[in-house]
Amino acid sequence: QVQLVESGGGLVQAGGSLRLSCAASGRTFSRYAMGWFRQAPGKEREFVLANRNGSTYYGDSVKGRFTISRDNAKNTVALQMNSLKPEDTAIYYCAANTGWGDVKKDYEYGYWGQGTQVTVSS
After folding, report:
1. Dihedral sign (CA 65, 90, 38, 3)
2. Following CA atoms 41, 3, 27, 37 in sequence, which dihedral angle do they give, to the nearest 10 degrees?
3. pLDDT one-digit tens code per residue, 56-80
4. What are the angstrom distances between the C-alpha of 73 and each of 54, 79, 122?
5. Strand pairing category for 33-39 and 90-97
């Protein structure tokens, strides 16, 4: 079992920055692919970023603006969001992929956090 708890969402003006954190349980955290997804109202869940074995995978809409970092000693992963745009407004989810599936596919993730709201005002 893996439990994920996100924090750090909120309201920010366009052009600003926000950092989300995700704390995970589990003794083999370093083996997991950790991903961030988001879902805006009326839209499908969208892949944002993921990290596995030192490699980072980016969603097209966030390249150059968002970065992911993880601390395997503390079982945490963070999403740093810069140059935020109103279209980044969504609920952001942290997820753990304990297998070897495609890190960009949400159905490959077996564990999800509760989500945290990010709102970017124009």
Report:
1. positive
2. 0
3. 999 999 999 999 999 989 999 999 9
4. 14, 17, 38
5. antiparallel
